[in-house]
Design brief:
The complex is a heterotrimer of chains A (about 325), B (about 525) and C (about 280). Chain B has 18 helices and 18 strands. In chain B, helix 5 packs antiparallel against helix 7 and helix 7 packs parallel to helix 8. Chain C contains 10 helices and 10 strands. Chain C has a 5-stranded parallel sheet, with helices on both faces. A 3-stranded antiparallel sheet of chain C has the order 3-4-10. Chain C has a two-stranded antiparallel sheet with strand order 1-2. In chain C, strand 6, helix 7 and strand 7 form a beta-alpha-beta unit. In chain C, helix 2 packs antiparallel against helix 4, helix 3 crosses helix 4 and helix 8 runs parallel beside helix 9. Classes of the chains: A alpha/beta (about 325), B alpha/beta (about 525), C alpha/beta (about 280).
Chain lengths: ~325, ~525, ~280
């Protein structure tokens, strides 16, 4: 993954002014909603069994950003979550760790301490998450604090109001500024697809975020409904695929919000495999933002291991 | 692909210019354009793809889906199947063996109807019409049809697996398309049985025709049986149905379902056999109405044979549909539509989008996406739930597909298939794309009836219409564009009985289906479809 | 075990919020049951439930609605014996035939769901380069005053056409003969018909009708079972939000006759769409 800020050379002049950026984004091929839903539904019929299911469950766990984003979060809660993320299943040490713990900036330091030496990353939301309604200065300060506390990854939100009002360049420049404030931290750009409403907007917002240098485009804050959904993820995976084909630069996708069942997660992995490509089946390029999903993945993993259906008593609640 | 010298519209001409100069210099000042992104992609694509080549052997990185076979036992396959005449299953001294095209194993022996059997079947249908079905009030006929629909739903898994074994199509298609649609056809037409007064404007009391002789093909065996029987019965006719020689089994289980539904004997008769049986049926004096779905060649024979008789006729024949993709199409969905159009059911579809007409300005982009997409198509065991492309239905059909494909190459078109491992037993053909095809190539005119796509280009909407219509066929067409008025303009001008806009291969019992020109006449489905079975 | 005859609102069976009930007897005075006596608040709640259910029901495919309604007929068949008793108790001279006819009538309307558009819609040959088509669409929430005499066949004949086309309904059952209606709502509750699509109120027709006729969130009203003394007043009240009104007949119709498409069309709007044809 390249680390330059701003658009790849191929697209440099697309962002020179609002009008040009709008023509570019509006010039992207449209998405037929019914067709996209049909393709997502067809991919959902893939039957993933046995060895391929076990592999998928393990990959899914490795791709989880285990998340807590509540007003009531405390250091105690965060420590418990970190322990869970490192060793998701105390009954089975072969269970992989998750990719990252995702939380609010003021708890980053707690998580950093807990996860030292584990390989599990600390991702922090920032930029006046979840609404994004604050001045740019406030949003950047938010980012810098999180980065200063040791966050490896930053999950920012775009200004949906500006996007829906057509002020694309403003949205773009904010992402660029946040990317700069990230320093070496990886940037995930939350599009809040539920507010963008149409798949055409999802495609445009995806491209805008990629042009601005986001490492990962992310569906949702998880705070509103609808959040991640199969046609949405399909369009985002197409965006990173097409971006990679035209620039040589692979960026990632994170799906967050409402994904609770292992079965859904495996379906999304099928999408990743068949839309973007097998290269994206990797925590560097794909994540699930989730909390309850992890336990269902563990339950399914236990079932694959023991041959019997498991139950809530056999997974930890942290 | 050559760039034509002939003058073209201002907009398309300047786009092409922009594309070629971009390849020369990336420092060029770009004029604003809605299509800039595609020009950009074309330039950087090849270099970028190399940069993206996965590191390490493919096996280490790929996620192989484990086999997920549906259970064969569900089909409740028997060693032998009788024909269904006058409410009973009876044997015959002549039989045929039906084969699983994916493995070449013999599935079962099936009784073949000779001329005497055809006589008996028609007589049974006549008696049932005169004495039972004809006088029966519509709301009572409806109940039988509702019952049949329910039973098809209840036995759907069995029917789906059996269909896949006998036909070679992937289980996910028989499960998700063929069987549900068959049930839907019975449900839909059940509701017409007591509403015939509303079916044809100006005819408050339409009468059925009598005995229908129906001959169906091997590509959607159960579904074609439903398409034929449901409207005939709803309208008050009785039927004698001849399923295709290579796929008789689901029609016979459907007959069993009719027995379970206590359909009065003789209302439906199913007589397996080959061309001779079909010919005897359609020529039989006791038949009032003939409905045929199959090749144009045989359709013409039937039309000739029925000349001067009182028999009513509907025909649903071959096609060579144009799938037209404009530069403002929703491209990813258009690619899905192309793939679905020609590879659904292995291309064994009369309305298959077998000619891709792509606007020259997006040719590279569309073909790149198409080729990439085809690498994710899974060909193999039709009983595996993850299989997308199944077997060719018979050795004969495979030979024909091969012959036409070889001809395509000989004619100078460029042939391409994604890397594809074909099983060593069975009848298989990889998904195949021919580019550099022109209208004068046989590969662009002859119906292949297999997973073979011919790609042609066009410059303007008028040219697209001209090329799309330049065929003796006229069953269906596809139009891909985000511009509504263009969809409607194209739909108005395309000489095809079914126009799919921004979609393809959509079927519904409420939606009339049928062709123009040599693709046949008459419609199936919808209010219009009833007219063929009413006086 | 004696059954309790309650209201059916939003897929649930509440008693009237007023706590009232009234006696239901056979025509010759034998006590049958106490039925809930719905209040204006129950009617109000029923309209809310019907409105809530509308988007989902009208948004379902016509095929799906047909399937769901067909299943209702299957369940009615299963309850045939109970219906025969209740219809007999309501004074029907031939309860068995009436129940059979009611089930057939329901099946008839179920089969219309995916055919109405083909029969009542059109493509219109306007004199210009436009594609012009007209489609029927459900009007919305329909209040139905079920017929007073025919407790099941008449009931089915007024309810089924309303919902087959995608409307939702608030139904006031026959005042003196409500029991088959309550059994029908039990059938609906155990079928796949979503809660709120059909809501059933038992009680005093003349008390409930004005509240429904004047309700601004009701789009249409069928006055078939209206108290004749009230019918004109109800029609006037309905004008307040320009409701589509199906007027009270002079006398109760012969429900065995062929219904035609009148009741299907009565609660449909026609939407006409224009689109240019051009490259």
């Amino acid at each position: 993954m390249t680390l330059t800020v701003g658009p790849p050379a191929t697209y440099a002049d697309v962002v020179r002014d609002d009008a040009t950026l709008r023509r570019f984004l509006h010039g992207l091929p449209g998405v037929d909603q019914v067709g996209a839903q049909a393709r997502a539904a067809a991919l959902a019929t893939r039957s993933i069994k046995k060895q391929s299911k076990q592999w998928a469950l393990d990959l899914a766990i490795r791709c989880v950003d285990l998340t807590t984003l509540e007003g009531a979060d405390t250091p105690g809660k965060v420590r418990a979550l970190c322990a869970k993320g490192r060793h998701p299943d105390p009954t089975d040490p072969t269970t992989p760790s998750v990719a990252a713990i995702c939380l609010y900036p003021d708890l980053v330091a707690v998580a950093k301490a807990e996860l030292a030496g584990s390989g599990v990353k600390v991702a922090s939301v920032a930029t006046a998450f979840p609404s994004g309604r604050a001045s740019l200065a406030t949003k950047l300060a938010d980012v810098r604090e999180a980065v200063g506390a040791g966050a490896d990854e930053i999950d920012m939100v775009i200004d949906r109001g500006a996007f829906l009002a057509g002020r694309y360049l403003q949205v773009y420049e904010e992402i660029v500024a946040v990317r700069e404030a990230c320093g070496g931290a990886h940037l995930k750009v939350i599009l809040e697809t539920g507010e963008l409403s149409t798949l055409d907007n999802v495609r445009r917002a995806s491209w805008l975020a990629l042009l601005a240098g986001g490492h990962v485009i992310k569906t949702s804050t998880g705070k509103i409904s609808p959040a991640a959904a199969p046609p949405t993820s399909l369009v985002m995976l197409e965006a990173v695929r097409d971006f990679a084909l035209s620039t040589g630069d692979r960026r990632g996708v994170k799906l967050a919000g409402g994904i609770r069942a292992a079965k859904e997660a495996v379906r999304y992995l099928v999408q990743v495999n068949e839309i973007a490509g097998p290269e994206w089946l990797d925590p560097d390029l794909f994540r699930f933002g989730a909390s309850t999903l992890l336990n269902d993945l563990i339950l399914q993993r236990q079932k694959e291991r023991t041959g019997a259906y498991s139950g809530p008593d056999y997974v930890t609640l942290d | 692909m050559s760039t034509p010298d002939t003058p073209s519209s201002e907009r398309e001409g300047s786009q092409r210019e922009r594309a070629s100069s971009e390849r020369e210099s990336s420092q060029r000042e770009r004029a604003s354009s809605e299509r800039e992104s595609s020009q950009r992609e074309r330039g950087a694509t090849r270099a970028a793809r190399q940069a993206l080549a996965p590191v390490g052997p493919a096996e280490e990185r790929a996620w192989e889906y484990a086999p997920a076979p549906e259970s064969r036992e569900t089909a409740r396959l028997r060693e032998s199947y009788g024909m269904f005449v006058d409410g009973e299953f009876v044997g015959s001294d002549r039989t045929l063996k039906t084969v699983n095209p994916a493995t070449e194993e013999v599935l079962a022996e099936v009784a073949v109807a000779g001329p005497a059997d055809v006589d008996r079947a028609v007589a049974a249908a006549r008696r049932a019409y005169d004495e039972v079905w004809g006088p029966m009030p519509g709301r009572e006929r409806a109940k039988y049809l509702f019952r049949i629909a329910r039973l098809v739903q209840e036995r759907s898994r069995e029917l789906a697996v059996l269909e896949t074994l006998d036909n070679g199509k992937p289980i996910k298609e028989s499960r998700d398309v063929d069987v549900p649609l068959a049930a839907a056809h019975f449900f839909y037409h059940a509701g017409w049985a007591d509403k015939l007064a509303y079916a044809v404007p100006g005819r408050p009391d339409p009468r059925p025709l009598g005995v229908a002789g129906q001959v169906i093909p091997w590509n959607f065996p159960l579904l074609m049986a439903a398409w034929k029987l449901a409207p005939a019965l709803a309208a008050g006719n009785t039927a004698v149905l001849k399923p295709a020689e290579t796929t008789p089994l689901t029609a016979l289980v459907l007959a069993e379902i009719m027995q379970q539904a206590e359909l009065p004997p003789g209302v439906v008769n199913v007589i397996p056999g080959a061309g001779e049986t079909g010919a005897a049926l359609v020529r039989h004096d006791g038949v009032d109405k003939v409905a045929f779905t199959g090749s144009t060649e045989v359709g013409k024979e039937i039309q000739r044979a029925l000349a001067g008789t009182r028999k009513r006729l509907t025909l649903e024949l071959g096609g060579k549909a144009a799938n037209v993709v404009f530069d403002d199409a929703p491209l990813d969905q258009a690619v899905e539509g192309i793939v679905n159009g020609i590879f659904f059911n292995q291309g064994h579809v009369c309305c298959a989008g077998s000619r891709l007409l792509v606007q020259e300005s997006v040719y590279d982009e569309v073909l790149d996406k198409l080729r990439r997409r085809l690498t994710t198509l899974r060909l193999g065991d039709p009983l595996d739930k993850n299989t997308d492309l199944g077997a060719i239905n018979s050795a004969e059909q495979l030979a024909r597909v091969r012959e036409l494909s070889d001809l395509g190459e000989a004619e100078g078109a460029h042939r391409w298939s994604p890397p594809c491992e074909l099983p060593d037993r069975g009848f298989w053909f990889p998904p195949t794309v021919f580019t550099d095809v022109s209208q004068s190539h046989r590969i662009a005119r002859d119906e292949v009836f297999g997973p073979v796509l011919a790609v042609l280009t066009f410059r303007t909407p008028a040219e697209a219409v001209e090329k799309a219509n330049n065929t003796p066929y006229g069953l269906s067409a596809g139009v891909w564009t985000e511009k509504g008025s263009r969809i409607l303009w194209m739909a108005q001008r395309l000489r095809a009985g079914v126009v799919w806009a921004n979609t393809f291969n959509r079927f519904d019992p409420a939606s009339p289906f049928g062709g123009y020109k040599e693709s046949g006449f008459g419609r199936e489905g919808g209010r219009h479809g009833l007219e063929g079975y009413l006086d | 075990m004696r059954k309790t005859y309650k209201l059916y609102i939003g897929g649930a069976f509440p008693r009237s919020e007023s706590g009232r009930s009234y006696e239901v007897s056979t025509p010759d005075g034998r006590f049958l049951a106490n039925a809930a006596q719905a209040s204006r608040k129950d009617a109000r709640d029923a309209v809310v439930a019907a409105r809530k259910a509308l988007a989902g029901w009208s948004g379902a495919t016509a095929y799906n609605r047909g399937q769901v309604l067909y299943r209702v007929a299957e369940l009615m068949e299963g309850r045939r014996a109970q219906f025969v008793v209740e219809v007999g108790d309501s004074g029907s001279p031939d309860a068995e035939s009436e129940v059979d006819a009611a089930i057939d009538r329901w099946v008839w309307y179920a089969g219309w769901a995916d055919k109405v558009a083909a029969v009542l819609g059109s493509s219109n040959p306007v004199a210009g380069p436009y594609f012009d088509f007209s489609v029927p669409e459900p009007t919305g929430v329909v209040a139905v005053l079920a017929p007073q005499a025919s407790s099941l066949l008449g009931l089915v004949s007024v309810v089924a056409p309303v919902v087959a086309t995608g409307n939702t309904a608030v139904v006031v059952a026959s005042q003196a003969r409500p029991l088959p209606a309550v059994t029908l709502s039990e059938v609906l509750a155990t079928s796949d018909v979503p809660g709120g699509v059909v809501n059933l109120l038992t009680g005093i027709t003349a008390e409930l009708a004005p509240w429904l006729a004047s309700h601004r969130d009701v789009n249409a009203i069928d006055l078939t079972g209206a108290d004749p003394a009230q019918a004109v007043e109800l029609e006037r009240a309905a004008a307040d939000n320009v409701k589509r009104v199906r007027r009270a007949p002079r006398s109760e119709p012969d429900w065995t006759a062929d219904p035609g498409t009148g009741r299907l069309a009565a609660f449909l709007e026609t939407k006409t769409v224009w689109h240019p044809l051009g490259v």
